[in-house]
Amino acid sequence: MKTIITSILLFAVLVTNAQHMGNFNNMAEDMSISRANIVTSMVNGAAYGNPYAPQYVAPQPSNMLHINLRSLYNVEATDYTAVFNIVQVGKTAEETTQLMNDKIDLIKEELRAQGFQGQFALDMISFVPQYEIEVTKKLFSKTYTEVPVGFELQQNLLISYRKDSEFQKILTACGKAEVYNLVKVDYYVKNLEEVYEDLQNKLLAEVAKKKLYYKELGFDMSDYNVMMADKKYYHTPKDFYKSYLAAENVSMEALKNQKSVTTVRKPTSYYYDPIPYNGYDVVVNASITKPVIQLGMDLSLQYTLKPVEKKPEPKPEPVKIPNPKVYVVSPSGPIDIKEIPNN
Questions:
Q1: The whole model's pTM is what?
Q2: Please, what's the b/e burial string for 141-178 (b: 16 or more CB within 10 A of its CB; e: otherwise)?
Q3: All CATH 3.30.70.2970 domain ranges in the chain, comma separated
Q4: Residue 18 in this model has a pLDDT that exceeds 60
Q5: Superfamily holding 79-188
């Protein structure tokens, strides 16, 4: 009996541990959901028989030196803006506008009553009349005429806030006003220049380490010319939400009891999947517990040997042209000097 109980407990522990993988991974292996090719990005997958993992390729030597660095900075937003779409219809333009204003005022009053310090803004989308077809019957024909029956007003309500915890208050207030269409949430960082400067300094430190590494290998960096290229990027959480279906399609109970299967709507699940860290040389604030803004900087340096300077050949000394002279001494004593032509 003890052996059976122990086996049951062990099985329960294994099932509990496996559940930590989540519903997404349960369906990723057989490629039955979108984005399931996430298994192809597992770096050590080849060691465990993953046929989709890239195989190792040894780097090839070259007469050029390369420094390729990638850096990533996870930073929490300092400001947020939630955008809600509101559609209101009414019989007249005045009634439609009044109903829209009542909803917006209710949201503002509800939030301010809870001490909300954020700001509100309206983005006008459209204000158009609605028509129906009126049929006029005649003796031998019918006439179809469009007649206005009401108006449709559509606006976006933008609510700015600074604390992430205030978003729940915003959802509650909008729900009371029957506003449910959340379009998006924008993330902003105030000290953006300081973040990029910090990331740049970390890249420079990595470049210094690489140069020291090449020096230890015997390369004199002063003998090389350098070319460079760099880029920055900025990603908000809304760019990295992925979807999957967590519901199964087969009902074993229905097959066992020979009953018909009732089709049930399978809700689409979403999860935040940030930029993975493989391939990055510098990652700041790697441990994140909620969606963040991800800033990045990439730097590429290429070093090529300087051409050998050729020393100029010495110019030959000019040839001296001889200037022969003949000295003629007469018997009486005077000396006569005569030049002999070179020809």
A1: 0.65
A2: eeeeeeeeeebebbbebbbebeeeebeebbeebbeebe
A3: 79-188
A4: no
A5: Protein of unknown function (DUF541), domain 2 (3.30.70.2970)
